[in-house]
Design brief:
CATH architecture: 2-Layer Sandwich
Strand content: 15-25%
Distance between the termini: 42 Å
Structural class: alpha/beta
Number of helices: 13
Strand order of the largest sheet: 5-2-1-6-9-8-7
Number of strands: 9
Number of domains: 1
CATH topology: Nucleotidyltransferase, domain 5
Length: 320
């Protein structure tokens, strides 16, 4: 059964907090590889704002996540899929480790990553997902799809800054993580063909050289490079891949939308740990989502307690 993969990121723009690049992997019969997954799975999933609340919303994380409604708007769907994919999800550390690529464990000197033992779900009442996961499993079986699992690469702030100091381009840090997902997907596919969709970052349109560097044993054919889509076909010894970098891919492909939600969920729960660390040292501190303007306010507010932590701001503040 060919492999279909969606890849997306969360945290590219903020000044504070990690970058997370996630992927969702699916086994799909050849005759359904190009089908609309929202339609196929309509008994279990729904686009944001459409249909019954008992179904799992899957869409662009910016449309699904409502900070006022809390983490449950992301958590229920992501944990349902994580559960279905066999990923441990008892606490934050267990989930992050379960979704990591081989040899890709979260490593950082920053103290808010030391103890990630908070139980999941963070909102157990509104994020209850077992019934929805059972419905999803039955729906997948009925339409002949197989959900392989979720993957996530967490790039903590200190490592992000190290890579930017080398590449001088924060976009390159995202591309590195995307390529790691692609290589892992190729290994997962083994002798199977694969279709990989990536939400295209910014104005970058040319990926041939990056793909050739990551997959040197594959012959690459450039099919399309346009303002909206960059499409490549890669021929390996055992399989054939099609890789598309698509603008707003999370609006067109459920596999990318789920990756978007997974990346956003992981970033949000890690940002919560970041805020908990600082609020334990400054009781009146307002939490931050890490975006530039509010990050400047936050960095100013923590100035009085910084010396006691021994942390230099340049270690955990994004340099680009």
């Amino acid at each position: 059964m060919p492999l279909v993969v969606g890849i997306d990121e969360a945290g590219y723009g903020p000044t504070l907090g990690p970058l997370v690049v996630a992927a969702s992997l699916w086994g799909v019969p050849p005759d359904r590889a190009a089908a609309d997954f929202w339609t196929l799975l309509s008994e279990a999933v729904v686009r944001p704002g459409e249909g019954r609340s008992s179904l799992l919303p899957v869409g662009d994380s910016k449309e699904v996540f409502d900070r006022k409604r809390g983490i449950a708007s992301l958590e229920r769907s992501v944990l349902a899929f994580a559960h279905l994919g066999g990923a441990a999800h008892t606490d934050i550390r267990a989930l992050v480790d379960a979704l990591a690529l081989p040899h890709g464990e979260l490593r950082s000197v920053l103290p808010w990553y030391e103890n990630l033992s908070r139980r999941l779900p963070l909102d157990p009442e509104r994020s209850a997902f077992l019934g929805a996961a059972e419905r999803l499993a039955a729906t997948l079986k009925s339409v002949g799809l197989s959900f392989v699992g979720l993957r996530a690469i967490v790039v903590p702030e200190d490592f992000f800054n190290q890579r930017v100091s080398v590449t001088h381009n924060k976009g390159a840090v995202v591309v590195e993580a995307v390529l790691r997902h692609i290589v892992a997907a190729v290994e997962q596919a083994s002798q199977l063909d694969a279709q990989i969709y990536v939400d295209r970052l910014g104005g970058r349109a040319e990926y041939r050289r990056a793909l050739q560097s990551a997959l040197p044993d594959h012959r690459i054919q450039e099919l399309l490079v346009s303002e909206d889509c960059s499409r490549y076909r890669l021929f390996g010894e055992r399989n054939e891949l099609t890789i598309e970098f698509v603008v707003d891919a999370d609006k067109h492909h459920l596999c990318v939308a789920l990756a978007s939600m997974t990346a956003k969920y992981i970033r949000e729960i890690l940002m919560d740990e970041f805020n908990r660390y600082w609020s334990s040292r400054c009781a009146s501190l307002r939490p931050t989502a890490g975006y530039y303007v509010d990050a400047q306010r936050f960095l100013k507010d923590i100035q009085p307690v910084l010396p006691a932590t021994g942390l230099a701001p340049q270690i955990f503040t994004r340099q680009r």
